[in-house]
Design a protein that fits this description.
Layout (H helix, E strand, L loop, with lengths): L12 E6 L9 H4 L4 E6 L4 H11 L4 E3 L9 H13 L5 E7 L10 E2 L15 E4 H7 L16 H11 L4 E10 L13 H14 L4 H14 L4 H13 L1
Parallel strand pairs: 1-2, 4-7
Antiparallel strand pairs: 3-6, 4-6, 5-7
């Protein structure tokens, strides 16, 4: 686990360790800290694992993370202050260093439709715990899911908006991620394609067919097959 965990008053860390095997070894650097909780989880799927971590959270605000991020104390404070300054907001999304996607140029409300070309990654999402528990991560999405093997983050934001929660994007950088996220890579597997197709249909009920066709064409620029992408996005959309 390469993530750095700054010590900050009022901040605790919950680690959900999925399928650790028969003789799990917990690093002393984590076990010896009083602000870190580690919970073993034997279920399947990244969404189920995130839900397990969420279930064990106790703080008012939850910031979702992966195990290869870099945070600073100022970045964590910025997340906390953003929620304090916006008491009517349940979900906030932010920016991270290392992203290759397009962000809105200024703070904006996230409704239907989303800002042009905007998509969210899990590591950009923070939420009030009570709202996050009501939303949850859909176990039918993400790595380890039967059909839609990605987009659990986009589905979380979609479900939050459908439930009527106030969701806001802030152009603040809250972490650093050294690798491309799934959303930044070509749609190289059937399950990732299927998830992309399903999310397009959910977000754009009346224009999803041409949007899927356009996304398949754009995949060629990333080195993916148009036909392969189109076939599996349509499969995902229609499943």
């Amino acid at each position: 686990m390469a993530i750095n965990l700054p010590r900050l008053d009022g901040v605790g860390y919950v680690v959900s360790w999925q399928q650790p095997g028969g003789n799990p070894y917990m690093p002393s650097s984590l076990v010896e800290r009083d602000d870190v909780e580690i919970h073993i989880f034997n279920g399947q799927g990244v969404s189920a694992n995130r839900n397990n971590a969420l279930f064990h959270c106790k703080g008012e605000i939850v910031l979702f993370a992966d195990d290869d991020l870099t945070y600073t104390t100022d970045q964590l404070r910025s997340v906390i202050e953003t929620f304090r300054d916006n008491p009517d907001m349940e979900v906030a999304t932010f920016k991270y260093t290392g992203a290759v996607k397009t962000y809105p140029s200024q703070q904006c409300l996230l409704g239907f439709p989303l800002p042009k070309n905007y998509s969210v990654a899990t590591i950009e999402i923070a939420a009030r715990r009570e709202a996050a528990l009501q939303i949850g991560f859909d176990p039918l999405f993400g790595t380890g899911a039967p059909v839609w093997q990605a987009s659990e983050d986009e589905k979380f934001l979609y479900d939050a908006r459908k439930k009527g929660f106030r969701c806001v994007f802030f152009p603040k950088t809250i972490t650093s991620h050294p690798h491309l996220s799934t959303g930044d890579r070509p749609l190289s597997t059937a399950g990732v394609c299927a998830a992309a197709g399903k999310m397009i249909r959910l977000e754009y009920a009346y224009t999803w067919i041409p949007r899927i066709m356009l996304k398949a064409i754009r995949q060629k620029r990333k080195g993916a097959s148009i036909l392969y992408s189109l076939l599996h996005m349509l499969r995902g959309a229609l499943t």
